[in-house]
């Protein structure tokens, strides 16, 4: 009986540790590990999905002076195609974010050929 109780206790503690491993310690919001798990599961379903990459423009200035926050956003919105690598999908959003910053910041850019889906 003691072994079964101890096993159950350890399983409960492991579940708590796993849940904590998916949260940022400071903000208690889901971290990149949680995103990767959820994204890979959703990606495997081949459903229409979107990723928005956001970057606070000139964050250092904001952090130093608590001035007005502007953001640059890159968006990809599509159904993953067969045999597509999940990192390619994320790279499209990242590339759109890059163009958002390159084209003047404080704006939204869609990944190439995305307007036809909206």
What is the CATH C-level name of the domain at 46-117? Alpha Beta
Radius of gyration: 20 Å
Structural class: alpha+beta
CATH superfamily of the domain at 46-117: Reverse transcriptase/Diguanylate cyclase domain
Share of helix among residues?
40-55%
Structural account:
With 118 residues, the chain is α+β, with helices and mostly antiparallel strands. The protein has a domain at 46-117: Alpha-Beta Plaits. 48% of the residues lie in helices and 16% in strands. It contains 4 helices and 3 strands. The chain has helices at 2-21, 32-44, 59-65, 86-102, and strands at 49-56, 71-78, 108-110. Strands 1-2-3 form a 3-stranded mixed sheet. The protein starts with a helix and ends in an 8-residue tail after the last strand. The relative contact order is 0.13.
Concise overview:
The protein is an alpha+beta fold and 118 residues long. It has a domain at 46-117: Reverse transcriptase/Diguanylate cyclase domain (Alpha-Beta Plaits).
What secondary-structure arrangement, pairings included, does this model have?
Elements (H helix, E strand, L loop, with lengths): L1 H20 L10 H13 L4 E8 L2 H7 L5 E8 L7 H17 L5 E3 L8
Parallel strand pairs: 2-3
Antiparallel strand pairs: 1-2
Give me some keywords for this one:
Alpha-Beta Plaits, 4 helices, 118 residues, three-stranded mixed beta sheet, single chain
């Amino acid at each position: 009986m003691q072994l079964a109780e101890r096993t159950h206790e350890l399983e409960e503690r492991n579940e708590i540790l796993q849940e904590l491993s998916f949260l940022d310690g400071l903000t208690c919001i889901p971290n990149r590990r949680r995103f990767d798990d959820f994204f890979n599961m959703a990606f495997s379903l081949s459903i229409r999905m979107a990723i928005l990459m956001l970057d606070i423009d000139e964050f250092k200035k904001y952090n130093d002076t608590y001035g007005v926050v502007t953001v640059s956003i890159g968006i990809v919105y599509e159904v993953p195609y067969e045999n597509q690598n999940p990192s390619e999908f994320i790279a499209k959003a990242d590339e759109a974010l890059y163009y958002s910053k390159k084209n003047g910041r404080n704006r939204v850019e869609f990944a190439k050929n995305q307007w036809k889906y909206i």
